[in-house]
């Protein structure tokens, strides 16, 4: 009844104030918590930093019994439990890092009803012993954190998550709450279905992070560009730099350190002790930069990360959003900065082609990459494009806080340039039966008599030198954008360029090819050139 509602109401708010020391709920938190406290199932989509934890922690405190939290982030459980205990919450965890005795203590506390929250790794739930244990205690709520791990198409798929569908059968009266920051409609559907939560209420928070400024710059010398960016805008700030390979993580961390910016590497090739040490330095110190592969950051809760920089292209918009979302959780101005170039496109396309996955997997990976490339190449508001990707309505007049809003890029009619590139690819293939990568194609267009051009007689082609009107950098931009628009494709381990079905429409002059202008770079000293 009405009175019952208001009792719950004040109890949840009182818990927020008393235990967590916060004055008010944020966004959807209150609605979610009310619903779960009243015994309902919930699927919660909230961006990273949105405050998902309280959505299950408060119901666990308000309802009788122990809240069971399923989380794949074993490395963080100790920290999470310590943080809760510091607030006076009776929390514990069971995972593979414990010895037998430690586990026994936690189990006994659970059975005695002395725990508010119990964190479990998903692989534990497969075990009969765990199921037995759970059925001998009293459970207030099941929270399934990082619920997108149930999605077989995602990067984070955990087979053990599939077993979580039994929770509803075995404990029909215990509410379940699934939480994730991954937002696409497909993932959302999959979570609901695979966790068997048909009656769940869905709570979808806004994905806009207005305090993050999105910027994507053309890549020339990424480490130097990064250094200039950090010196100009983020001196002394904490931040994360993402690179694709361990090797470039190491070299970038070294480069920054040598140039007076304190930076440490983080990747799966480092031993666990070093990784833990670097992570805790990052959390505790004020202005440390972590250079990392994507292995770093899942579940990291540091409010004052002032920038996230990408030196390599993320594989999907979801990945980009999650990684950049680690900046500015405190709501203060922060930057998401990325350097992106032709080689990123070629490298990612090659990775997809040489992957072990089946045809369907490749098609999905290619679709993910295409959305990411569209974000990089757009001449319109980046935030608008991001929100639209997540199915949310962007502001049609732009956000005013991304590079394309702040300095709208110029576009030009690249139809003829596109035709020149495509004709060169066609000639090589038709007349010579050859395929080459972007470098050789551009050398031919520029009329450069390099060793390889002479070796293959490419100076005899009719297209030799027809592209002297553009610079090498501009040609790389043209090729990159053609790849991004699907008007050109990459093939094989050498990344040779080949036509797509859509290429023909350009060659037949049936469509125009608008391109973004490449920003001017400091002129490279070209000997003898006066133009
Ligand atoms: P998520 O799991 O969604 O990434 P968290 O639950 O870790 O986010 O919360 C992010 C940060 O916001 C944490 O530091 C948390 O303490 C803080 N926070 C959450 N809810 C509130 C609130 N209602 N008022 C103030 N701070 C909050
Ligand atoms: Zn914008």
UniProtKB/TrEMBL annotation:
Cofactor(s) this protein cannot do without: Zn(2+); Mg(2+)
Keyword Zinc: yes
Transmembrane segments: none
Biased composition range(s): Basic and acidic residues: 512-521
Keywords: ATP-binding, DNA damage, DNA recombination, DNA repair, DNA-binding, Helicase, Hydrolase, Isomerase, Metal-binding, Nucleotide-binding, Zinc
GO molecular function, one term: hydrolase activity
Annotated catalysed reactions: Couples ATP hydrolysis with the unwinding of duplex DNA by translocating in the 3'-5' direction
Top-rank lineage group of the source organism: Bacteria
Protein name: DNA helicase RecQ
Gene Ontology biological process terms from the UniProt entry: DNA recombination; DNA repair; DNA replication; SOS response
Taxonomic source organism: Streptomyces spiralis
Residue stretches making up the Helicase ATP-binding domain: 33-201
Portion of the parent chain present: 6 to 536 of 667
Source species taxonomy: Bacteria, Bacillati, Actinomycetota, Actinomycetes, Kitasatosporales
Entry GO CC: bacterial nucleoid; cytoplasm; replisome
Region feature Disordered, mapped onto this chain: 510-531
Annotated EC: 5.6.2.4
Domain Helicase C-terminal: 222-376
Record family assignment: Belongs to the helicase family. RecQ subfamily.
EC top class, as a word: isomerase
């Amino acid at each position: 009844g009405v009175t019952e509602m208001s009792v719950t109401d004040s109890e949840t708010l009182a818990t927020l104030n008393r235990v967590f020391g916060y004055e008010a709920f944020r966004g959807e938190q209150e609605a979610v918590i009310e619903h779960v406290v009243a015994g309902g199932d919930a699927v919660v989509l909230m961006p990273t930093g949105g405050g998902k934890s309280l959505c299950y922690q408060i119901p666990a405190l308000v309802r009788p019994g122990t809240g069971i939290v399923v989380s794949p982030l074993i490395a963080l459980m100790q920290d999470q439990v310590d943080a809760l205990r510091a607030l006076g919450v009776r929390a514990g965890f069971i995972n593979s890092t414990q010895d037998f005795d430690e586990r026994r203590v936690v189990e006994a506390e659970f059975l005695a009803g002395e725990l508010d929250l119990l964190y479990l790794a998903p692989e534990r739930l497969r075990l009969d012993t765990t199921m037995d244990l759970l059925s001998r205690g009293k459970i207030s709520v099941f929270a399934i954190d990082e619920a997108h791990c149930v999605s077989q198409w995602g990067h984070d798929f955990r087979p053990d998550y599939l077993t979580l569908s039994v929770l509803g059968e075995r404990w029909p009266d215990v509410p379940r709450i699934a939480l994730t920051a991954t937002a696409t409609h497909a993932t959302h559907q999959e979570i609901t279905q695979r966790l068997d939560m048909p009656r769940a209420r869905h709570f979808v928070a806004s994905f806009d992070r207005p305090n993050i400024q999105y910027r994507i710059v053309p890549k020339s010398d990424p480490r130097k560009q990064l250094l200039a960016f950090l010196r100009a805008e983020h001196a002394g700030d904490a931040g994360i730099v993402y690179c694709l390979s361990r090797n470039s993580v190491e070299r970038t961390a070294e480069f920054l350190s040598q140039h007076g910016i304190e930076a440490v590497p983080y990747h799966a090739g480092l031993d666990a002790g070093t990784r833990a040490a670097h992570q805790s330095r990052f959390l505790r110190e004020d202005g440390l930069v972590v250079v990392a592969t994507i292995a770093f950051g899942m579940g990291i809760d540091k409010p004052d990360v002032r920038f996230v920089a990408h030196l390599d292209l993320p594989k999907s918009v979801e990945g980009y959003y999650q990684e950049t979302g680690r900046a500015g959780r405190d709501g203060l101005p922060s930057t998401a900065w990325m350097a992106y170039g032709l080689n990123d496109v070629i490298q990612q396309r090659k990775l997809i082609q040489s992957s072990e996955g089946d045809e369907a997997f490749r098609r999905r990976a290619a679709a993910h990459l295409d959305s990411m490339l569209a974000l990089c190449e757009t001449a319109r508001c980046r935030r608008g494009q991001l929100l639209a990707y997540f199915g949310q309505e962007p502001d049609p007049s732009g956000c005013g806080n991304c590079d394309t809003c702040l300095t709208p890029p110029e576009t030009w009619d690249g139809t003829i340039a596109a035709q020149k590139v495509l004709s060169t690819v066609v000639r090589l293939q038709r007349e010579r039966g050859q395929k080459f990568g972007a470098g050789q194609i551009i050398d031919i267009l520029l009329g450069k008599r390099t060793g390889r051009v002479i070796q293959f007689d490419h100076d005899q082609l009719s297209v030799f030198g027809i592209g002297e009107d553009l610079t090498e950098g501009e040609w790389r931009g043209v090729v990159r954008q053609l790849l991004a628009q699907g008007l050109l494709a990459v093939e094989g381990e050498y990344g040779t360029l080949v036509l797509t079905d859509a290429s023909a429409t350009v060659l037949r002059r049936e469509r125009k090819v608008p391109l973004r202008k490449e920003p001017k770079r400091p002129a490279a000293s070209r000997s003898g050139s006066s133009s």
